[in-house]
Each structure stands twice: as C-alpha cells, then as structure tokens.
Amino acid sequence: MIVFWILALFLIGTGVFTITAQKPVHSVVGLLGNFIALAIMYLTLNAEFLAVIQIVVYSGAILILFVFVIALLSSGVKPFDVGPDRMPKILWPAILLGIIALGTIVSSLLRTTAAPVTSSTRALYGQTGDANAFGSVTDFGTALFTSNLLPFEITALILMVAVIGVVLIAGDDAPARTKPKARNIPREPIAR
Amino acid sequence: MNPSLFTVPMENYIALSAVVFFLGVTGVIVRRNPLIMLMSIELMFNAANLALVTFAKAWVNNTGHIFAFLVITVAAAEAAIGLAIVVVLFRKRTNVDVDEVAVLKG
After folding, report:
1. Which CATH number fits the domain that encloses residue B57?
2. Contacting residues for A78 by C-beta, under 8 A, at least 6 apart
3. Do B31 and A50 touch (CB under 8 A)?
4. What is the rounded distance in angstroms from the CA atom of residue B29 to the CA atom of residue B44?
5. Which of residues 40-99 of A touch B (CB under 8 A)?
6. Interatomic CA distance for residues A127 and A118, integer angstroms
7. Given B30, B33, B62, which is nearest A135 (Cβ)?
8. Has residue B16 been placed in a domain?
9. Is A24 a member of any domain?
10. Per-residue pLDDT for chain A (192 aa), expressed as one digit of tens each?
11. Of these four, A120, A164, A165, B42, which has the most CB atoms within 10 Å of its CB?
C-alpha cells in the first residue's frame, strides 16, 4: 500500500514536472522518472515482462530518441521554447474541462465496486519471479505467441510502417550525386 | 514479501491512471513546444497502459498485457514519426511553434 502511494506521488510529481518544465531536456528527465516509477508499478501489478519492456523500450529507446532530437535541434538556434503557455484564453476552460472529466472518472469509480487487486486471489498470481505465475514472462510469451499471434504480427507491421514513414518524411529529398571528396588525411605509415 | 503491501484497491490504480492521463491532456493543450507535446502524448499512452495492466491483474487475464504491449509499439512508432516531422520542420525554420505551422492544413 505504501509502495503504491509513494509511486503514485512520484508519478504525478514527475508528470507535472514534465509538462511544466521550461526546457525540453528537463521534461525528458521528468519523463524518465515517470517511466521508471511506472515500471516499478508494473512489477507490483505482476506484469514483469511489461516492466522490463517499459524500461528498455521507453526509457531506453524513445527517450533517447527525444534526447537526440533535442541535441540535434537546439544547437545554435533561438530559444527553444517561445512561450510555455501562449493560450491564456483556452487555459482556464481547459483546466475546467479536465477537472470535470477527472471528476466524472473518479466519481464513477467510487460508485462501482470492482474486483480489488488484493491478496484474495493471490493463489492465482503466485510469487513474482515464478515462471508459472500469472504475468510472468513465460505466461506472457505463451499468450503472445499462441492465442494472440495476430496482434504480434500487426505490431511488426506497425513498426515497419513507422520506419518507412520516417525515412519518407525525414530522409533527404535529393541524395547527393557527387562523390564525396576523398579525404586527404596524412597517416602514419603502418610499418616502417 | 509482505502481502499487505499489495492490498491496493483497483480503483486507486485507475484513478492514478486518470490523473496521469489528464496531466498529458493538459500538456498537449497548454504547451506549444512540439517536443513537450509529444512527451505529453507519451504520458497519456502510459496512463492507458497502467489502466490496461490493472484490469489484467484484476481479472487475472493477460490479454491486457498483450494490449499494453501493442500500445507500447504504437507509442514507439508515433514518437518516431512525430520526431521526424519535428526535425523536418526545424530544417525549414529555426523557430518551431505549432501555432505557426500550418503546412499540413487541408
């Protein structure tokens, strides 16, 4: 229980930091904390594989992509962020709408009695790290490659489409026709 | 491991997911920097994932995990394409403000 509250506060705090930071790099750091806290939360929810994927894919790949783009773009250009919030007219309606939507969700949650994520059905879950338990890597992999094979293949298709799209969008329009100049680097003779 | 650490009602997780989701919504609405808007979208993806994993545990059914896996993939693809668009925009101009970019307007 205490783990949940610590993680929840950390998640919300880093989320707020992410959307309020002036520089995108600070946002990335906030998002990193958010992702790691979420990975730990996945562990408490018996989703071991997803916790690892969260660290590897999100903090390892996506955030590094963000960092690369920031490093690529913010060198020598004008201040990166023109203004943090240049929509003062929409700000308060937006906050109001957000509070209303959040209130709707929370109140509907309060009125339903859902199955608690507790130890009552704990025999089904097993201990974290147990290969046969619910949510273990074995369990996840079996489900992924047997009954959910089509979503897995669609995943591959999505990634391929993304790669093609990125190359089409950001690739060079006209590849260089001329041969690159031969570099004339004086070299030490390998053997005298 | 102390089992009492894990007696958290499902509602808490869902409420937390809602809070994080609306943090992301706020970020997309309020911020004008495309990079931070993309990060806010990642926040929303993560909130959805948290809800999926929570439901998966509550119903002891790992279809939610599969869904979360799919969402992570989509998030990776979205980040890659979004960042590619940002890079292309930055090539044309030094100052990226999404309000001033109307190239894609139909």
Report:
1. 1.10.287.3510
2. B94, B95
3. no
4. 13
5. 41-42, 44-47, 49-50, 53-54, 57-58, 61-62, 65-66, 69-70, 72-73, 77-78, 80-87, 90-91, 94-95, 98
6. 13
7. B62
8. yes
9. yes
10. 788 889 999 999 999 999 888 888 889 999 999 999 999 999 888 888 899 999 998 888 899 999 988 888 765 455 444 554 555 666 777 778 878 887 887 787 777 665 555 544 444 555 555 556 677 788 888 888 888 899 899 999 999 999 999 988 887 766 556 655 666 666 666 665
11. B42
